[in-house]
Amino acid sequence: MMRKLGKAVLFLLVLAVLGLGVYLYYFQPVPIEKLREDPRAYGGKTVRIRGEVLNHASVLGYGAFDLQDKTGQITVVTSLPTPKVGENLTVEGEVRQPFSMGSLNLTVFKEKVRR
C-alpha cells in the first residue's frame, strides 16, 4: 500500500514540475530587452510581453503604442483600440523588423492578442 502511495506522489511531483516548465516556457512574458537585442531569434514565433503603456497614437483604424518593462521599451503596432497611457498590460504577438539600414534598426511588435 505504501509503495503505491509513494509512486503516486512521485508521479504527481513529476507532473507538477513538467507543468511548471511548460508554463514558464510558453506563458511567461519575454523581457523586451531580449526582443530588441536579437529580434531574429523570435522571428515567426508568437511571444508575450508585459509592461506599461507610455504613449499611443491611432490613424484610420490602426494604432501604435510604446510599451515599457523594467528591461526596455518597444513600439507595438495594432489594429485593436489603443490602450490608455499608464495602463499595464500583456500583449501577445510577433516581433517585426520593418526597417534596417547599417546600424539603424527599427524593431516593432505586431500585436495579435491583448490580455
Structure explained in plain terms:
With 115 residues, the protein is of the alpha+beta class. The protein has two domains: 1-28; 31-114, Nucleic acid-binding proteins (OB fold (Dihydrolipoamide Acetyltransferase, E2P)). It is 27% helix and 44% strand. The protein is built from two helices and five strands, in the order H-H-E-E-E-E-E. The protein has helices at 2-26, 32-37; strands at residues 47-59, 62-68, 73-78, 88-101, 104-114. A five-stranded mixed beta barrel has the order 1-2-3-5-4. A hairpin with a 4-residue loop joins strand 2 (62-68) and strand 3 (73-78). The longest helix is centred in the N-terminal third of the chain and has 25 residues, at 2-26. The radius of gyration is 19 Å and the shape is elongated. The model has no long low-confidence stretch (mean pLDDT 79).
Features:
OB fold (Dihydrolipoamide Acetyltransferase, E2P); 5 strands; 115 residues; 2 helices; single chain; 5-stranded mixed beta barrel; alpha+beta; 2 domains
Task: Give a brief rundown of this model.
By secondary structure, the chain is α+β, with helices and mostly antiparallel strands. The protein is built from two helices and five strands. Helix content is about 25%, strand content about 45%.
